[in-house]
Amino acid sequence: MADQDVKQGTIRSLRNWGENSVPPTLLATLITAQHFRPFQGLPMMFPPVLLFSSYLNLSGYKKDSAGITAAWSGLYALLAMRRKNHLKQKFGARGIVRGASLGLCAVNVAGCGLAYVFGKREEDES
Predict the structure, then answer these.
(1) Confidence of residue 58 (pLDDT cuts 50, 70, 90)
(2) Looking at residue 45, what DSSP letter applies?
(3) Measured distance CA(105)–CA(25) in Å, rounded
(4) What CA–CA distance (Å, rounded) separates 66 from 119?
(5) Computed over its alpha carbons, how large is the radius of gyration of the chain?
(6) What is the pLDDT of residues 67-94, one digit of tens each?
(7) Is the pTM for the entire model greater than 0.85?
(8) Which of 37, 44, 94, 116 is 20 to 30 A from residue 29's alpha carbon, by CA?
(9) pLDDT score for 60
């Protein structure tokens, strides 16, 4: 019975993460910090979409926001993992920010995916 409670608590925590408006904003901040200087056009397409997702969440569209965040976080993770980093580059400031953004992408895909799949819209609840 205790394993069931722990599993349910983990799933609920991930779903709460996905229904929150802070993770897409935080990921947009990390992406901007990495790619704004020098400016890289393709990765800089992600922050406006993630900020719009956060706006949708605050406007009451939690399920739709979670879906957008999960999809665009996964796309950014695929884009960022294409770059090869040498061992020396992984422990600098840019490497730490890159690792944090990839970790946040993974948590966003899991949490927001759960929130999207199991979420309910307000008109569904009526």
Answers:
(1) very high
(2) G
(3) 12
(4) 9
(5) 16
(6) 999 999 999 999 999 877 766 667 888 8
(7) yes
(8) 116
(9) 93
d(CA 119, CA 48): 24
As given in the structure block, the two tokens for residue 32 are 């901007």
Question: Long-range pairs for 48-54 at CB < 8 Å and ≥24 separation?
Answer: 50/24, 50/25, 51/24, 51/25, 53/24, 54/21, 54/22, 54/24, 54/25, 54/28
Residue type, 115: A
User: What residue spans define the domains of the chain?
Assistant: 2-119
Return mean pLDDT, the chain.
89
3-state secondary structure the chain: CHHHHHHHHHHHHHHHHHCCCHHHHHHHHHHHHHHCCCCCCCHHHHHHHHHHHHHHHHCCCHHHHHHHHHHHHHHHHHHHHCCCCCHHHHCCHHHHHHHHHHHHHHHHHHHHHHHHHHCCCHHHHC
